Amino acid sequence: MNTPCQVILALSIGAGRWAATVGLAALLSIGPTVSAVSARSVPVHDYDLGSGTHAQVFPDGSVRFRVVAETEETDLLWLAIPWPEDRRAGHREASLFTTVTTEGAEGGHRGFARDADDDNDGDVDEDRRDGRDNDGDGAVDEDFAAISDDMTVVNATRDGRTLHLETYHWSYPHLQRVVMVNATLTTGNGQPVATNAIIEAVASPWERSDLICRARPLARRERPEEISALVCGRPDPIDPTRTIWLGVVLLDAAGARSGRNSRVRRDDQQLAVPFLAGKMRLAISVAPTFLQLTGSLAAAIAVHRGAADPVTGHSVEWIVPPLPPTDQTSPNRAAYWIAEDGGARLEFALQPVTDQLFDPDLFELGQQPLGSPTTIVWYPNEGSRVEIAWQPPTPEMITSRPRQLCDPYATVLSSAGSDEPGRLVFRYAAPTAAQNDRSADSADSDPQLIMARTLDGRSVQLSLDRRSPRADQSTEPGDGYDDSVDAAISATQSDGDDDPPDPRSVSNQPTLNPDLLENYPNPFRDVTNIRFNVPRTVQEGFVWRPDQQPALSPESAIPYRSGYPMVTVSIYSLNGQEIAALFAEQVAPGEYHASWDGSDLHGRPVAAGTYFCKLQVESWSVTKRLVFLR
Predict the structure, then answer these.
(1) Shortest CA distance to 324 belongs to which of 404, 405, 214?
(2) What is the pLDDT of residues 551-571, one digit of tens each?
(3) Model pLDDT for residues 265-294, shown as the tens digit of each residue
(4) Are 431 and 366 in contact, with CB atoms under 8 Å apart?
(5) In terms of Cα–Cα distance, which of 575, 625, 111 is closest to 322?
(6) Which residues pair with 344 in a beta bridge?
(7) CB 356 within 8 A of CB 339
(8) Of the candidates 155, 157, 168, 148, the residue with the CA atom closest to the CA atom of residue 129
(9) Are 9 and 22 in contact (CB under 8 A)?
C-alpha cells in the first residue's frame, strides 16, 4: 500500500483570517482521524437525504454522511481528500472560495437553457464558479454551469495546488438519497495531481458487488444496466432491526461498468478512490433498503450520462432524464388486505407494462412498517401463477447473489404473457402489531391507507380496501373479487351468459370521454390553454362501444373510491417520457384550467414537435395530441 504523509491545511479569506486544521493519517490506515477531519469546521452546506439522513460538505473538501434522530446523531460515512504535505516555508498561505447555488441561478444557466452562454461568446461553462476570472474576459463567474437543486462549490488553493470540489443533490425522489461528487486536483500550471480520496464507512465493511439495475424501473422491456459498486450495510441507529445501506459508484464508463471497479482499493471499512488525470467523479447513496440503494445508484449514472440537447443535438452532462409516468401516484388506487390462517396478504391490480413496482420491504400501515413478505406471487389474468420466496437482503447476501437481489420481479414477471394485467400478492407469515391493529373487522369501517414506495423512490398512497372476496377468505385472485367501482362502470352485456365478464379485463375497462379534455390553440407557438372537466356522472364521464352498456344508469354519480378523485394533467413526449406536470390535485367534479408554454419539468424550452396531453382521473385517462411550433 502507498502511504502518503499526514497533511495539515490552513486556509484564509482576504484580510480576515480563517483557519481550519486538517489531519489525515496514512492511506488505508486512517482510523478514527477521518471522522475528526472537519470536527472544528463549520459546514458549507447540509443536504437532506430523507429519513433522517444528511450529508454535510466542509470547507476542506470532506463530506460527512450522518443520521439525525432528535438530539442525537450518528456518523455513517466520511469522504476525505488528502493533500500531500509540503514543508516549505510559507506553505500555510492559502485561499478559499465556497458557495451554494442552484441550477438556473443568475449566471449559472446550462444544458438546454436559452441563457446557458451567459457572456454571449459562443461557449458555455467556460468560467467555472470559483471566484476567479477563468476565461479572462474581466468578469468573474459569469458563465458557469450551475448543476442540481443544491450545488456546493469548494475551491481551495495552497502551495500552488488547487482543489476544486463540486457536490450535487437533487430533490427528485429517485435522486434525493444521492450526493454526486465532481472533484479536480491540479498544480498551479494546471497539471493533474495523483492522489486518492478516502471513503470510510463507520463500523461497516465494504463489499464489491456487480449489480443489475434499471435507471428507469418502469421500462421493464429495456435491457437492465450492469453496474459495479462498493456496498455496505449497517444497523439503523434509530431502529436496529433495520439496515441502512451505503453505496459508492464511479461515474464514468469504465468505473460504472460491471467488473471494472478494481482500481478502487478496499480495506475493510475504507476505500481508496484514485484521482485519474486529476479528476474524480462518483456518487454516494444512503438508502433504507438494498433495492432503493441500487435504484438510486443506477439513476445517478443516468444523470451523469446526461442527454442530448433537442435543439442543438449537443450532449450535455448532469441532465436528469424525465421520470416515467405512473398511474400509481393516485391515493385512490385500491389495495386489498386479507387476513389468513397464520398470516395475511396484501394485493393489488397491476399492469406490468405501465405500472410502477413496489419495494417489498417498505409497505406501511398507519405509519407502522409491515415488515418483509415471505413470498411474492404474480397471478396474471391469463396464465399460471408465478411465486418466489422473498428474503430482505442482508450484507452477507450481496456478495453471493447480488443480481437476484436487485430486482425480485425479474423472475415473477418473466413468464410468458407477463405483459398481461393481473394481481400482485405479497404474503406475510404472521401478522405484525401494525397488521393486527389495522385488520378488517367490518366492511363498513373507515378506509385506511397503505403507504408504499416504488423502486425508483416515489412515495405512493394506496386506499386499503378491506372487503372480503365473494367466496371465502382463502379465495385466490381471479376467483371473483368485488372490484365494485370498475365492475359497476365497466360491466358489459353478457350475451346470455349468466356470469358477468371479468371486470379486470383490459377490453372491459371504461374509456373517458374525449370531450373532457380540450386545448386551444393547437398547433401553438407560445402558450396553449388547456380546459379539462372532472366528470360527475357516468354519462358525462365515459364512452361505450356498441356492444357495451354500463351497469350503473347514465345519470348515476361516478363512485370514486374515496370521495373526490385524484386528477393529474401532464405532457408526454412521443416515446412516453413525462415532459411537464401541469396539475395534480384531489378535486371535486367540475371544470378546471391549465396552460403549457412549451417548457419541460426544469423550465427549459422543448424542441418543436408533437406531444401528448394526458388527463388522468383515478385509474381512467384520456389523451390529446398537441403540436408545438417555434
Answers:
(1) 214
(2) 667 778 887 765 678 888 999
(3) 888 899 999 998 899 999 999 999 988 998
(4) no
(5) 575
(6) 339, 428
(7) no
(8) 155
(9) yes
